[in-house]
Task: structure prediction
Amino acid sequence: MRAVVLAGGVGRRLRPHTLTIPKPLVPIDGIPILHIILAQLRSAGFTHVSLSLGHRAHMIEASFAGNRWADLELDFFLEEEPLGTAGPLALLPPLEDSTLVMNADLLTDIDFADLVARHKKSRAAATVALSRQYIDVAHGVVELDDDRKVTDFREKPRLSLLVSGGIYVLEPSLLRLLTPRVRDDMPALLDRARAEGERIEGHVIEGDWHDIGTPEQLNRATAAFRDDRLRYLGRGAAAVLGADTGAFQEVGSG
Result:
């Protein structure tokens, strides 16, 4: 199985953590987030990962010391200028099969192999992994009709929203909708696909998902990872990273 990891971001919102290192190498409890992601992918059965790089690309390449890492075949593609979350795909050789595409700033315990299997079964052109997020409103919410008549009043409701998890499975046919070396984002690409009648599937992540885009989000992700590494890595990914299995067994037994 093949995956593409988008690792070209500057990480301005994550400063000061990204003042000296690129965002994909920001550590989660001592382990670069990109290395965690690749270990998860390897444990899930992926064999080939393409990394789309931009900001401080040389540091990311150097962290892997070549095109083989933990039995993963790696290749690197450089964005000479930022191309968004979909544009970098036009730099790659044509995809041959369903391909997982994801951002490099996510900590999640999603089962990547299951996501790909569900996508293939759905026969959709793309599957978007979704995270359920909650927003607590501090005030009473009032709804009016066109005549300004109150139709609903909810005291301090909790809103439930599904947000894109930055993880996708795409069919090769979607790349026809991209223009090489033109900035493009995944929502726009999927909107064009829907306009052409393509089926876009949604998959709700049942487990944990963290965006590490800000220092506060990074702190929450680090705390969650530190509390239960086994949840995110499993023994397979832990072995890929050369982690202390005794520590993992201790956490798991608690």
Summary: The first helix runs from residue 33 to 43.
